Amino acid sequence: MLEELKRRVYEANMELYKRNLVVYTFGNASGIDRERGIVAIKPSGVDYTALSPERIVLVDLKGTQVEGDLNPSSDTKTHCRLYREWKEIGGIVHTHSRYATAWAQAKRTLPCLGTTHADYFYGEVPCTEVIGDRAIEKDYEEETGVQIVNAFAGIDYRFVKAALVACHGPFVWGADAAEAVYLSVMLEEVAMTGFFTALLDPKSTGIKQSLLDKHYLRKHGKESYYGQSKES
Amino acid sequence: MLEELKRRVYEANMELYKRNLVVYTFGNASGIDRERGIVAIKPSGVDYTALSPERIVLVDLKGTQVEGDLNPSSDTKTHCRLYREWKEIGGIVHTHSRYATAWAQAKRTLPCLGTTHADYFYGEVPCTEVIGDRAIEKDYEEETGVQIVNAFAGIDYRFVKAALVACHGPFVWGADAAEAVYLSVMLEEVAMTGFFTALLDPKSTGIKQSLLDKHYLRKHGKESYYGQSKES
Amino acid sequence: MLEELKRRVYEANMELYKRNLVVYTFGNASGIDRERGIVAIKPSGVDYTALSPERIVLVDLKGTQVEGDLNPSSDTKTHCRLYREWKEIGGIVHTHSRYATAWAQAKRTLPCLGTTHADYFYGEVPCTEVIGDRAIEKDYEEETGVQIVNAFAGIDYRFVKAALVACHGPFVWGADAAEAVYLSVMLEEVAMTGFFTALLDPKSTGIKQSLLDKHYLRKHGKESYYGQSKES
Amino acid sequence: MLEELKRRVYEANMELYKRNLVVYTFGNASGIDRERGIVAIKPSGVDYTALSPERIVLVDLKGTQVEGDLNPSSDTKTHCRLYREWKEIGGIVHTHSRYATAWAQAKRTLPCLGTTHADYFYGEVPCTEVIGDRAIEKDYEEETGVQIVNAFAGIDYRFVKAALVACHGPFVWGADAAEAVYLSVMLEEVAMTGFFTALLDPKSTGIKQSLLDKHYLRKHGKESYYGQSKES
Questions:
Q1: Identity of the residue in D70, D74, D105 whose CB atom sits nearest the CB atom of B114
Q2: Is C134 part of a structural domain of the chain?
């Protein structure tokens, strides 16, 4: 069932591979059918070159498998937690993309250092706290989702669609799996440029609010004027 | 109309893509027909893989669209401002190329750290002031052009054909769109090598004037002897 | 003889080349037939584009050549020493991959800075002592193996399947040549991300034990739940 | 005339391009016929994609053109000076390869930081003095050759076949153009790894003499045992 969703989740996973954000079996993309409460996700530990729409696994919102011969991604519970917490997201991506992961490993929030960042993320991309020992023991992947949600106290997940999980790597979301992939590419792009910027200007804390507003809002929101909205 | 100009602007945009200076819809190249006062520019938010000569948009020197089904680049007014200010340029390119953008985000002028830089840019590539709040509110893209022009007080735009817009990224120009693309590649090259140099030698301020003169003038100007001038 | 082993060692070497871990004739992969005590290894100084299964050289566990027209890799004795010391390994890879080599040249152990590292290596990847002058004179390649084994005092080679040889580069091992190649790719990945992390957070010493345990053990050991174990 | 030499010089130039050491018209490779005292070199400012064996230019040892429709490389006099000074070299390459150029721009000698460097260069790769104003005025390209030779006081050019020209970039030489290209690739490789090493370990000054001797001499000299010497 849900052939169309599985096909789109498959394509999102393959785009991760083509965009060089993953090696071998790293990373995973998922998408949700909100009406049925079913999540389609990459199988665990399968090489991208061996992936097909049929191998995409279906789980319910608690992470229980409902279709597929293969085990779902080991990060499935993190995805499901985010889908349950945040009703307006339709796709999630997790990668170990190099520069975003470096910021996460340094346990540093990624500041908004330029207009490219502002075009896609409305402010800094938060880094979570390091997960506690009890949370690791209890239910590690579920609790990783909790950490992400906690990092968004005071931040609207609809305007900053990415988080850095401390010591781990990025999670990114969007309206569907394709948008989550697209924003994963952008996150890596700004994490890379931000890394270079941090070395050239170690004290940099980010651009001013007026410039952030201008760039984010000319692309998003009611008065946006970027792109071809008349087409859509 | 202006089929030849549109074709050349299309090709310049595609060269940006092939040279890996842009991802997805980033960046834009334009060219001008000085006689008619018409600028050809990339449409806004269109993926390079979906571009064609027919989709290139025509605007007048104030940025008003005169042909094309798609909206012009959101940076159109910046291009037009530069074309109005600087009569001897025929093409402009804007990218978020990684190393040039890092210098811009660090709000640092790119010093001339070696002869490769001197071969193409006659001295440091200036970084603008951060744009003021009133300018952002008034007419952001137009005022970005003003910032660039202001950064060239005391610098001849015909010998240094690039600027770093603070917190944003590079703008590069030339005799036509093709030259602006070519110099965008060179700017990224020297921004990259300059980044490595800055890490190996943080106090470096640049090469001496006599070496800058030698390299720039052996390639450009009346007594140049680089290349195959007898061919042209 | 041992056509199948030679074919698999050939393929492992070619994977090094495809994964961009080697240039020209750098690096080498080997595999062992434990029953016969025969090691198959890349010939010395042969370009990857000129390699074939037939050109793979066979040596005994002392490094004496038993088959092949070409000389074996100059690192053969290092491989043989490791095979003799560590009975549970079936494949070894040596490269000069860039980031792992940089850590080795800096004579720095690679700390476990994130969960990607923890997924593949159970703790820091040790860096050997700089080899002594007498050991260089006596039997350099053999003694390089000794240095590696010495660096594993207190570390189990079955859980950390890689070493950095000071001033030199990485050696990696596994159940067979293919696993050693796979882990070489992973080592380069975490050495790269670790390099970026070290620049963003110079005081970082690595993730906590509970997180290391969680990630390593969910992929390896009796209670692992990553991947498709039911398939194998 | 000298069709074979021109073909080999053409191929050496194309290898620079394939190995990503040059962009557009950067760089040049030359080779010499010692008997006739004729040097074959890339034409000036010609794109690699437009190169052919017929377009390779012939000059005598003073740099005077003796064959070819195109002007020779603007660096021709530097090549000729080195051929006149150092009788045992048969090929020369100049590039602006990124990491080697960064060291040159930082005016820093490249120390021998690891065994990969020691495999190909017998000690540090020297960086010249910054060229004097009078030398620039007098005969810039010729004097660049003089700078390189001066940097080799106390260093044997037959064992360290590369120099960094301060504020400029690398020159590399060898038995023929092909070896000079090969060593240019290796120089870039060790300049890159050396750059990473310098950031991880800023005080590093290089490996000890015994290790340098071991690696250089196992590949070169009378008692070398690397590779397939019995084949040649």
A1: D105
A2: yes
Which two tokens mark A230? 């008349």
Quote the ipTM score.
0.95
Q: Is A225 part of any domain?
A: no
User: What is the reported pTM?
Assistant: 0.96
In angstroms and rounded to an integer, the radius of gyration of the C-alpha atoms of chain D is 17
Q: Is D179 helix (H, G, I), strand (E, B) or coil?
A: helix
| Residue B133 in domain | yes
**Cα separation, D142 vs D138, whole angstroms:** 9
Query: Shortest CA distance to C174 belongs to which of C85, C90, C75?
Result: C90
Query: How long is chain D?
Result: 232
Which residues of B are less than 8 Å from A208 in CB distance?
Answer: 130, 133
Output the six-digit token pair for C55: 């050109």
CATH code at D59?
Answer: 3.40.225.10
Alpha-carbon distances of D166 from A176, A229, D44, rounded to whole Å: 53, 53, 22
Structural domains in chain D (count): 1
The answer to whether D103 and D29 have CB atoms below 8 angstroms apart is no
Which H/E stretch holds residue B30? strand B28-33
pLDDT, position D224 = 86
Domain region containing B166: 2-220
Considering only CB atoms, which chain C residues are within 8 Å of D225? 71, 74
D208 contacts on C by Cβ (under 8 Å): 130, 133
Residue of A nearest to C203 (CA): A106
C228 in a domain, yes or no?
A: no
Query: What are the distances in angstroms from CA D196 to CA A103, B196, C89, D183?
Result: 18, 10, 31, 20
Question: Which residue in the set A25, A137, A198 is minimally distant from C200, CB to CB?
Answer: A198
Q: Rounded to whole angstroms, how far apart are CA atoms D38 and D20?
A: 28
- Write down the pLDDT at residue C1: 79
Give pLDDT, residue B228.
Answer: 84
Rounded Cα distance between C211 and A129, Å, is 13
